[in-house]
Automatic annotation (TrEMBL):
The lineage of its organism: Eukaryota, Fungi, Dikarya, Ascomycota, Pezizomycotina. Residues 183-287 form the Fe2OG dioxygenase domain. GO terms for biological process: small molecule biosynthetic process. Keywords: Iron, Metal-binding, Oxidoreductase. Belongs to the iron/ascorbate-dependent oxidoreductase family. InterPro entries: DIOX_N, IPNS-like_FE2OG_OXY, IPNS-like_sf, Iron_ascorbate_oxido_reductase, Oxoglu/Fe-dep_dioxygenase_dom. GO terms for molecular function: metal ion binding; oxidoreductase activity. This is Clavaminate synthase-like protein. It comes from Periconia macrospinosa. Signal peptide: none annotated.
Length: 354
């Protein structure tokens, strides 16, 4: 059982592949307990090679070391409409009432050509990746190869995690196969500069307190801490220390909705006051964009004839989350510009999030 005030436990996922029924059942039970408690756990013993993790993290640092003007050549907001490429610092506000976030990102996904039905019908996060030119990054082909190899390895792991999640809900291991077929997932390389000493710490975030939009997230951390998970039982923030080779796994809003709130999509944030640069790589597994999510069998509470939520497609659920978080940042910038025109500087009010 997960203890209140305990950081997300590290589980040995090799039990899933072991052929040992007792070990596999223990893993299922442990994952279920985490999903009921805080919706977070960590895994080792997975098939993603440690060297591949190191290689992609090295490329993460190389990319963000490029001059800003070079990164802006593949800005996701100006170079395409399908959410691939560079994301400028302070582009998002996930926690209402805080300042724009101190992070920059680089969005990568499956290589979806312009002839693909997803691209033609403008499905969410579906299109060709945007890469630096060889003039900017001479070894860019290696960057592409490593990124896509890592992406596909983690997406395959996500599919295995969903099999375990199915078992935790007393469903067949194959229950989510239709949802997985044709799935969309997004990988973000992330860079968090250290928080300036004079920043208003109650308002400045690397990434604000939020829940993820999709089904599950698989996060690779480097060596610098900063990730914190809110513990609902103790009402405190718990640090999730980086563990070499381990992935942090958490449920998103879509899985919470799917389980009729039986499982938890939990609040988490990043505050980097380490004095060092922090790098991380989340892979957000959304699912087939056309799949309709409604309450899972066995998740209705006694007396309920239908779930708490209306059915929704995967695509619409993710778009709703994007609209809210990016819209806040754009509104903040508009308000700030108006205040500057008046010759005043606005003060952001602190608000409670949890």
């Amino acid at each position: 059982m997960v203890q209140a005030g305990q950081a997300p436990p590290i589980l040995d996922f090799s039990a899933f592949y072991s052929g040992d029924a007792a070990l596999k059942q223990k893993l299922v039970d442990d994952v279920r307990n985490c999903c009921l408690h805080n919706g977070f756990f960590q895994i080792t013993g997975h098939p993603v090679p440690l060297q591949l993790q190191r290689d992609i993290m090295t490329w993460n640092k190389k990319f963000f070391a490029l001059p800003l003007e070079e990164k802006m050549l593949i800005n996701k907001d100006t170079s395409n409409t399908w959410n691939r490429g560079y994301e400028l610092m302070k582009s998002q506000i996930l926690e209402p009432g805080t300042l724009p976030e101190l992070k920059e990102g680089f969005y990568i996904g499956d290589e979806i050509p312009t002839t693909h039905p997803y691209f033609i019908s403008k499905k969410i996060n579906s299109g060709p990746n945007m890469w630096p030119s060889t003039d900017v990054l001479p070894d860019v082909e290696n960057f592409k190869k490593t990124s896509l190899e890592y992406y596909h390895a983690v997406v395959a792991l996500a599919e295995d995690i969903l099999k375990v999640l199915a078992l935790t809900l007393s469903l067949p291991e194959t229950y989510f196969d239709t949802f997985v077929a044709g799935a969309v997932a997004t990988m973000r390389l992330l860079h968090y500069p250290t928080q300036p000493p004079d920043s208003p710490q109650k308002l400045t975030r690397g990434i604000g307190a939020h829940t993820d939009f999709g089904t599950i997230t698989i996060l690779l951390q480097d060596t610098v801490s900063g990730l914190q998970v809110y513990d609902n039982a103790t009402k405190e923030w718990l640090d999730v220390a980086p563990t070499p080779g381990a992935f942090v796994v958490n449920l998103g809003n879509l899985m919470m909705r799917w389980s009729n709130d039986r499982y938890i999509s939990n609040v988490h944030r990043v505050i980097n006051v380490s004095g060092e640069e922090r790098y991380s790589i989340p892979v957000f597994f959304s699912g087939n964009p056309d799949y309709v999510v409604e309450s899972l069998p066995g998740c209705l509470q006694q007396g309920e004839k239908k779930g708490k939520y209306e059915p929704i497609t995967v695509e619409q659920a993710i778009l709703n989350g994007y609209r809210d978080s990016y819209g806040r940042a754009e509104q903040f910038k508009r308000d700030e510009a108006k205040e500057k025109e008046k010759g005043t500087v606005g003060v952001v009010k602190e608000v409670a999030v949890v």
